[in-house]
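Input sequence (580 aa), recorded before submission:
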Amino acid sequence: WFSIQRKALYSSDRNEGQSSVEFRKFDAIVIGGGAAGLYTALSLSDSLAEHYASQEQEWKIALITKDNLTISASDWAQGGIAAVIDRNDSVQLHIEDTLRAGAGLCEREAVEVLVSKAKPQIHKLLEFGVDFDRLQDKSLALTLEAAHSRRRVLHAADATGRELVSTLARRVVDRPNIQVLEGVLVLDILLEKSPAGDRCVGVTCIELKQDPNKLIGLLAPVTVLATGGGAQVFSQNTNPPASTGDGVAIAWRAGAKVRDLEFVQFHPTALAIEGAPRFLISEAVRGEGAHLIDHHGDRFAFAYHPKGELAPRDVVSRAIFQHLQKTGEPTVFLDLSPIARDRIAYRFPNIIKICKKWQVDLFSQPIPVTPAAHYCMGGIVTDTWGASSITGLYAVGESSSTGVHGANRLASNSLLECFVFGVRLAEKVAQDLMHLKSEQTSNCQIDFSIDTLNFPNINATDASQDRIATIRQELRELTWRSAGICRNAEVMETAIAQIQKLQQEVSTLRNKTRLWAETHNLIDFAYLLVKSALFRTESRGAHFRLDYPDTVSTWQLHTVIHGQEISAQGETTPEIYHRI
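Predicted structure, token format:
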């Protein structure tokens, strides 16, 4: 569908210090090995097979993951998938719950798509072999989670994400037209520049396990970012180490619009034991009846909200944060004693296992917990078909901003988003690819002489790597202090200046290592997040400012960053621009 402008290719013998590049062509590139990436790749495979059935054309999808296939935040997801299955539930109720949690910033069209298209995807997952929990009569078991008005959350014990990604990964491996590229690190997006506007034509990357000194150019008319969120930008978080905001940072640098990055969900109950990772204690534990108590045994959450421990996540997180400040204690506790022992054993085997590893017997003692960063509501702006503001570039899952989550995601809508929007993206992309195939041309020239290929071969010395690791940790502590659960202007302004210094320093240490690339992305992600949080002078949903504690009706707007401009945008309000 295009030809390469040979004279633009860099080679090490022509330009000293610049990298040689090997190019490979695909029909579509999907970046990310979590639920969103796996399901999108499978859906693309189905859609392309259907569209090309009569044409006998060969086609290939690249699925890229920087880790092994099943290491992702989806794999860590415990709670489940929200979907209207029960006869006592309704699409309208699920829509209303989602809108209420989103605090006025959900895009209703996107929410209606999410909820109304859920059931067919659940049936598809069942066809794939996902083993959801069932009742004695073999019907699907449904649980209640915070801010839901009905039981509508499907689960696989307390390891739903692991069940999903392992099942989907097996399906992906069985598809001959999906080429899985493991241990491949994407660096930047390749753009075709033209007067009509930029077009994404692929990505540059390195093969960490093969030859990390060689740049690879993967070319395709469709590139899908399904890289997850960036919660690793906070020192206290429940995500795997790979959640470094790669997709958002890469897309922003390429000129895509990003939105609502100030809205980060802090999960109220992460395991809080010295030396232990902040393992998430699922929302479903409270949904099954566990009590949130302080060191006196008091159910303190009711002093902050009438629904107590079943209030929306942001409310519960702030209640814990404020209560700990008031009492001076390091943690609060989850007391599972109101739940029957056999029910605990059936529903939460993985939580039992992890707690036991850290010498907590949850059958006889409460679990110490504190809030931690968990999920990023904002991301790359897309329409309801997954298309970003750059032609040829798409996003799905946590790295996208469709508008379904607003200012605060409703529990268990995140996995659902991966499937509903993954299959919609595939349907639209297949149609677009057919259009491109029917208008094949060989005279579309792509200029690859751009900064992303001008990647100097700086040696990754031990000293430079140690400094990058230190920068990464400094950044994560800085973001937690300045843009954590409670924020204010003075602290954030200071943080932005510090982040900019870290940006400059890390650029001088540029090298072809995963540590550098992830740190580079984390710094950009932190910059965008803190700038957005400083720009929004109100409190709404998961964004809470001590200096602006009220929700303001005139701020029922999205925060959009495009290049070096930040704006407040909404249907009824003119855009307000500021340079960032």
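Checked by second reader. Confidence is low (pLDDT under 50) at residues 1-17, 440-445, 572-577.
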